[in-house]
From TrEMBL:
Protein name: Glucosamine-6-phosphate deaminase
Organism of origin: Cyclobacterium lianum
Coiled coil location: none
Gene name linked to the record: nagB
Record keywords, A-Z: Carbohydrate metabolism, Hydrolase
Listed GO biological process terms: carbohydrate metabolic process; glucosamine catabolic process; N-acetylglucosamine catabolic process; N-acetylneuraminate catabolic process
InterPro entries in UniProt: Glc/Gal-6P_isomerase, Glucosamine6P_isomerase, Glucosamine6P_isomerase_CS, NagB/RpiA_transferase-like
One cellular-component annotation, GO: cytoplasm
Chain's role: Catalyzes the reversible isomerization-deamination of glucosamine 6-phosphate (GlcN6P) to form fructose 6-phosphate (Fru6P) and ammonium ion.
Enzyme nomenclature, EC number: 3.5.99.6
Amino acid sequence: MLINIFPDNDELHRAVSKEIIQLVKTKPDSVLGLSTGSSPVDTYALLVDDYKKNKTDYSSIVTFNLDEYVGLDAHHDQSYRHFMNFHLFNHLNIPADQTHVPLGTGDLDNNCQEYEALIQEAGGIDLQLLGIGTNGHIGFNEPGTSFESRTHVAPLLKDTIEANSRFFETSEEVPTKAVTMGIKTIMEARKIILLAYGSHKAAAVRDMVNGEVSEDLPASILQKHEHVALFLDEEAASLL
Ligand code: GLP
């Protein structure tokens, strides 16, 4: 694992956005795996700034997001499809049909299979962005998820529901299930960048980097990936 530690968040997001922009420029038909949550928001803002200034071309880029809440459609303001349109897609010249977010409504098992097939058809993911949950989850793969998992419907744990309730009016409104790329899907990405900042992520980051590789800490599987770069602030890196 390549570990980059930044004294401030601005530099961290600049570094991550630079990596993405460079990939988009060198391989204009790249397949990007994208994430939601608060971690990538400022990175996306920098991509939008760069697009406005430099007209970096996203017209041939294809994207696949990690996950979506079950029961929230694209119009729900807490759906991850809405999040991605709002923070990124609406501001770039990426055709809407080249952006993919798992569907959290309708026939979920079928949606999962189709999502995996679409990733394969696109030639696999060149660069996958990840955040990490405080319990070590990646995507919505909670502790205990099989390392062999592919896109599937996942129950959310109480801690995750609590952590994500800050985006909803009450914790009762937070969906209890999600559609998420599986661990195996994530591990097939050719390169992975994981962003984490804040002291609340320090224990999960420590266990991801130095702990035993175990399904109890889903992010620990990243130790087995050949091209993983962590982008951390000093607080998230404080227990390394
Ligand atoms: C959420 C998302 C993950 C995200 C993680 C961290 O539950 N499903 O993809 O990486 O939790 O979120 P945040 O970046 O808000 O800390």
